[in-house]
Fold this protein.
Amino acid sequence: MKILFFITFILSVWTKGQDGFILENTDKTVIKFKLINNLIFIPVNVNGVELNFLLDSGIAETLLFSLENKNVDFKNIEKITFKGLGETVSIEALKSIKNDVKIGKNFIDNSHTIFLVLDESFNISQDIGIPVNGIIGYYFFKNHPVEINYIKKTLTVYKDRSKFPKKIKRYSDFPMSVEFNKPYLNADVEMKHDKQSSKLLLDLGNTDSVWLFPALIKDFIYNRPNIDDFLGRGFSGDIFGKRSRINSLSIGDFKFRKPIASMPDEYSIQHLKLVKDRKGSIGSEILRRFTIIFDYQDQRIYLKSNRYLNDPFLIDGSGLEIKQDGLLWEKEQVQVQTSKTSRATNEINVIDNSPDSFQYKFTLKPKFIVSGTRKDSPAQKAGIIKNDELIIIDKKSAKEMTLNNIHRILKTDVSRKIHLEIRRNGIPMKFEFTLEDPIPYIEE
């Protein structure tokens, strides 16, 4: 199982003249979102069809890669290619302009450009556990200040800065640069003892705490212990690298101790066009600890800590990589209770428990399979292998859970024994292993 899903890309052709979303006939609008594995998902209406999008400040353009049998009318299409984090060089896509896109009641763009990804193998739904049709980035934030409230799970779009003056007084205010349509912040990174000011992308689409690019950091030395790991998936392929803990990450007076840092290898970033002096990214495991206001127009970011501020930085302690492999119909027996009412007491008494009082219903249940295991991890040592189907986790039926629930069970900062039942080639098997932190921070 991987707690990270990271996407970024650079298009080989740039969109010209797109204005972005406009707030119509109101001073603010509130949009509810789903929070899954630190990622924000919002309903987006594209040309009259309701879809589900990931909100990602780490991408410039709007992407669509799945329609799930929905019909959307796209016009004005041309073929393009783009590059991103991963091992291959380019991916084909279609560029569609002048689309009507609406989010909520009043947030509208009547000339929105969308890039349609043609690679059918690219489907993030199985990594998230819910249907995901696309990703939206810069143009959501471009024209209006946007507040992200992780506690209430709401996005509030304000007409302009003057609409929240009282709010600003309760926030810490930081300069933010918007370069190539993406937001950057300077933060202090302390690997062991030496603190370095580092330019980092503010990346809502990255579930990790921090990403660092060793090849771009002078005299970089990996902290020990560290592990070789699969870090996520980019549009050009899988991303590999190392994970370890660093001493701290500081944003102004906010200091996070022992966060987990992911460090992609040089092959994963070799085709990525980076802005000057960038050293890495701040992911949503850090960002979710604040209520945030992004103000792209004034190039400012406002942070106010929430109740998640001092949460520990947990890592998957099993080494399992899990994905949802579709949905299966399951037959369930349901009792139909026949009753009668006593005229004297008005009480309802169930009187029929015969076999004829039972009926069957069919419901869709998720199917989860192992997509891989981390080298030398507890799950690998126990004998779990790729394509094993999860049946029971800690006495809980996997089909009654979500991928997010499973992730939470397998994250740990303490030792914990896990009982797992799987199905391999139709044969049920049982396993037991103890969760362990593979990268505890060691003081030197």
